[in-house]
Design brief:
Blueprint lengths: L7 E6 L10 H13 L3 E6 L22 H21 L6 E4 L23 H17 L8 E6 L5 H13 L6 E5 L2 H4 L2 H15 L2 E6 L32 H12 L10 E4 L51
Parallel strand pairs: 1-2, 2-3, 3-4, 4-5, 5-6, 6-7
Helix pairs in contact: 2-3, 4-6
Amino acid sequence: MREAGGNWERIRVWVDPPAGYSTLSDAVTLARRAKRAGLKVLLDLHFSDFWADPGHQSTPAAWADQTLSELEATVRAYTKNALETLSRAGAPADMVQIGNEITGGMLWPLGRLYDGSSDQNFPAFLALLGAGIAGAREARVHGGRPQIMVHIDRGGDNGGSRYFYDRVVGAGLDFDVIGLSYYPFWHGPLQQLEDNLSDLATRYGKELIVVETAYPWTLENGDELQNILYSLDQLPDAAVWPPTPAGQLAYFEALRGVFPHVPGGLGLGFMSWEPEWTPGVGWTPGEGNPNDNLTLFDFQGRALPALAAFTPGRITTKPKP
């Protein structure tokens, strides 16, 4: 990835996952490897024992009986410790996510949004998010404090993005970077992403990263588990970007061409998710994975042409469908 022009590694951490899955100790190993390769590190704290996303934000089992004030203290201390652990290992994080795709809140049920209450539970959620941010600011790390990202999944949804970040910014929470997931087969045409990025940059004056994106290089399946994306009908621009190695490259080139147009130079770029998830590592223990055709390497681990989209200076204008 570094040889292709990539400059960041995003590393996921779960609190107490199944054996072999994304612990803080694993993050230390990967962060050291990334630093040796000349990459910066984004630490992605899920605050959960397993997958955290818009539909799943389960509180870690060890924290489940805590009151809101106790959970705030735990989140603050956990975040601080995670960052200091990487720093002591000689691989300090350059950026940290306080939660992963927290559109619906975090640390459910206490931090769940849209639970039917009149205030939609924003006070509890914002208290927990603020605790994580405070822990990150307090961490004693080498080389300067990391930037702090708040990440949701609304890359093509300007109204939803505004609704969320208006409340986070309005609460006075001190963060640096807006992170968005954008998958065209879920989040709409590329123009919607560009419009959203432009509006958010103007509205909040914060740097923006598409922290998750992917596009298929095939509709074939590399293992026994059904893939998330398996039909041309799921691709709104299949005629422009077919599910082939060349079509995947064209998608990433078009995506990269969006960022020079973001006002104020605030569009930093994109991160691929998950580029190396080839067959052999399961979605859950004992299963296959549903993303093996959304990688940047084929089923045998050979690099695909889309890696060329990471090359500095390659894209100067945005191809239009």
